[in-house]
Amino acid sequence: MQVIIKFILRNMKEKKFRTFLIIFALIISSALYFAAGAVTKSVEKMYLSQIKRISGSSDITIHKNTTSPSPYFGKDSALTYQNRMEYLIGTVIGQGKYEYKKDHFAGVELIGIHYEDLQKMNPVTMAAQKDLQPFNGRKVIIGKTAADKYGIKVGDRIEFIVKNESLRLDVCAIAKPVGPFSNDGQTLTVIIPKSLASFTFSGQRDQNTDLYIKLKEGESAERMLQDLTGAYKYYTVEETLTKSDMEEQLKTMRTALTNTSLIVLFISAFIIYTCFKVITTERLPIIGTFRSIGAEKMVTSTVMLLESLFYGVVGGSVGSVLGVGVLYGMVYIMTSGSGAVISVEFSSLELLKAFFMALLLAIGSSLLPIIKISRIPIKEVVLNKVESKGGSKKRVHLLIGLGALAIATIGPRIAGETTIAALIDISSVVLCLLAAAELAPYITNLVVKLVEKLYAVVFGNIGVIAARNLRDNKAIINNITLLGIGISTILVINIATGSVMQEIVDAFAKSMLYQSSISYKGMEKNFESRVKSVDVVDDTYMLHQAENVEVDGTNAKIMVLQGIDIKKHRDYYNVDYSEDAEALINKLETGRFIVVGNVLKTRFKLEVGDSITIKVNDKKRTYQVIGFMNTLVFRGDYAIISEKYFKVDIGDLDYSTICIRSSGDPGLAADELKDRFSRNAPSVTVLNEVSKDIMKNNDGLFKIQKGLSIMTMIIGIFGIANNLIISFIERKRSIAIYRSVGMGRQQVIKMIFIEAITGGFIGGFIGVACGVISASVIPYMMKAVGGLSISIRYQQSTLILAIIAGAAITIAASISPAMKSSKLNIIESIKFE
Amino acid sequence: MAEAIVTENLNKTYKLGAWDVEVLKNINVSIEKGEFVSIMGPSGSGKSTLLYLMGGLDKPTSGSIKINGKELAVMGDREESKMRRRDIGFVFQFYNLIPNLNVEENICLPVLLDGKKMKDYKSKLDDILEIVGLNERRHHTPRELSGGQQQRVAIARALINEPDIILADEPIGNLDSKTGIEIMQLFQKINRQRGKTIIQVTHSSESAEYGHRIIHVKDGMVN
């Protein structure tokens, strides 16, 4: 055994590039596997910190809703249950403006909280401070990002405009971007003493807009929710973060990253498998020699497995370490420009998992070739009579390829919305890649047949020889497969992200046919005519809108429920309805009927004719579902009923929102509206700004996805380079044969480039086909994962570009083999070793 | 009679690690057109190297080789390759066929490389396949043929462009004796009926007997 190990170690040393390639593939795969897994954890933490930006460690929160008599309330009723609470903290949160430059304002969120409470609920670390304590009077803590952005220092006096009055405050501390300040890049958040906030906003002391409660260990949240709901009838009492909320937020991201990791693993397995196939074939005569002089099959196989284990150990160890770096990189990409802060989170268990994944990948991918050669009789090995068997085995591959393609195409379409739909959809993408790998030889042969005559005309006889060389040429077919997989990965990720982005833009641009909206608490009917009278306003539409409406018998809610004016609604909201739009909208007026978005359809498993009971102010009202809306408006978490029934059932007679169509820049129009109605302190939303915000929030994930797809392509390109080198080694002899019968150097170069271009185009074509098929799975996946209905869009030019890129990659990778081939020593290469 | 191949003061030295190994020393050989010559010698004597140098597959360290009166050393790659396509046909011990091309395509390789159309060579291909006895196997790939059949394909490939000279390196070294005899008889037939100059390298005195004369090479020198 020792001598065999020695032989293999020497072999590894001699074949440095191949050893490097296998280890490199393992390093990248384990690094990406680790990083993709760990980034989910880090991003989970980011989401958590975003969601719990203010609520911190609290379990329950109480805040106003549409039925609340006032946004401000006391905490006396909650104090009754204080013995079951670890803390009960009140805050006053209000809005204001900060004039950072003459006539330039930034919105500011002012959080009034006692300093001790802040540190208890949501600890903040100060980057700089001066006279911070006692935190009372006219002091303010600002975030470091905002301080840097606006050039504010500790000790400065800054001025805010709150309710049209000036509020001058002394900066007593600058906080690191955590907790309330974690979103500082996007919104300006400041902390002021609670008593100051209470008095400024409510005009009274000891008022709150939000209460936060942390329960004592072992106390039931459900019981507390019940008790507090009773005590605060006209306010919303809810958990600060439910597990299902969190899951909902993370599902899409997890699916996307899992998908990409799977593809990376698949491509690595393919590279290692092809490398080992070459290794085993090359070593076959030596292994035959060892076997002929008495080495057991078990010993030779074990030694080869030990070799792959060695690759696994090295690749896994380096890969895990590199993975930490990749993780930091991913986190950096995700946070750059967003202002959000994520601390990198991973456990040693995850590192270990990545390490073992590398071992598994190395051994798993090499196992098949090793088993294959162990079955060959010694005589055949020694006499070099090992021939690849065609026939039935070829048919098996064809059948596997076609089967995988069929399942990948049909699977998601019949899986519908079953519980395993997401799993089927993910598997379909991987099956599509498998189909590409299995069908590549057949597609290549077919294309070769088709282009042979064309090549004869364009490239002459060298073109014909090159085309024929592609037939059944394993190294070139492996290249085509790698290229196909790489291109399809990049395409599918680009198509998916592009489509989602486009859907978001469309949801705003095409579905919401107005530029901005204005609302304030207690809005009256005549406010619409006042808004209409503003110069920049062309038209308006007032509607009722309730948020986070509870659905009886479930823990889930409807994010937005609108009571619509059936005459005007479709002029302002253009969404796809499952039935005839006009009939559907008109029917709403005739009874308790509801039309729900597709996300709600999936969430509550609704069909036309089903009932849904909404719960508002302890009153339950049952509506019959008469149709669905396929829309990303309010992320599809959206339903409409008629204005008439909204008034009766929800009971809020104030019109809650006015949609505005305006001429000119919507941002300027919004400013004018804010100024004009500043006494009402309205909230004005400009749609394209919201759309930009959403895009920005998704940008990080998209960047990661694209990064991963590029990494996949890099592994693929390394695989291609390896294959071309292997192909060169394997083909040295046949090129020497060509040379011996009169092929000139130029002809060799021409032949190799024609092969490369053809292989590149075929690989590009397979990549595009596989990418388009995989991309067609995305709408099903999005639906299964998030209930979102999106349609896939891509430009034909992208697909053509992908095919051209395929050819460019193989041409570039062929330069070195072509040059080497043209210069090879015919005698040395032609001799049979 | 005109000379097909002439070598003058031909030397070939290989580097083997730190050593310079003189494989051929001052070889002066003249082979006339239509001759069937066998080069014999023990292993490592330099006989195959001499054959490869004659075919322009390797470059000599010094000395000159003339093929049909043309000096090899002054030829560029283009001219040298053209010579290998048109003036010389090679037959190797291990056949050296392109595995993914069928019999017809393998045979027509020199024609294709010469930029000619395969269909123009149809009747010639039929003739040659008839001579080598592979008419039935024309659409098979090399891996579907026996060693003897593969060597016949290699011989047919060497003949397709009607070269004057056929160089064969141990052409029956990998074949059983019965097939070996058949191949040697085929060479003899080609030499006699078509007037081709044949130079073969061989270990076997029996196969050397098929030629007109024998050149003995030992320790890099012609005896």
Topology overview:
The complex is a heterodimer of chains A (833) and B (223).
Chain A: H1 2-14, H2 16-51, E1 60-64, H3 76-79, E2 85-101, E3 104-112, H4 115-121, E4 126-129, E5 139-143, H5 144-150, E6 157-162, E7 165-175, E8 188-192, H6 194-202, E9 210-215, H7 221-231, E10 235-239, H8 243-292, H9 297-335, H10 348-374, H11 378-382, H12 392-415, H13 421-459, H14 461-470, H15 474-511, E11 516-519, H16 527-532, E12 537-551, E13 557-564, H17 569-572, E14 576-577, H18 581-588, E15 593-597, H19 598-603, E16 611-616, E17 619-630, E18 638-642, H20 643-649, E19 657-662, H21 666-676, E20 683-686, H22 687-740, H23 745-786, H24 796-823, H25 826-830
Parallel strand pairs in A: 3-8, 5-7, 13-18, 15-17
Antiparallel strand pairs in A: 1-9, 1-10, 2-3, 2-6, 2-9, 4-7, 5-8, 6-7, 11-19, 11-20, 12-13, 12-16, 12-19, 14-17, 15-18, 16-17
Helix pairs in contact in A: 1-9, 2-8, 2-9, 2-10, 2-22, 8-10, 8-13, 8-15, 8-22, 9-10, 9-22, 12-13, 12-23, 13-14, 13-15, 13-23, 14-23, 15-22, 15-23, 15-24, 22-24, 23-24
Chain B: E1 3-16, E2 19-32, E3 36-40, H1 47-54, E4 62-67, E5 70-71, H2 77-86, E6 88-91, H3 103-107, H4 109-113, H5 122-132, H6 147-159, E7 165-169, H7 177-194, E8 197-202, H8 205-208, E9 213-218, E10 221-222
Parallel strand pairs in B: 3-8, 3-9, 6-7, 7-8
Antiparallel strand pairs in B: 1-2, 1-4, 4-5, 9-10
Helix pairs in contact in B: 5-6, 6-7
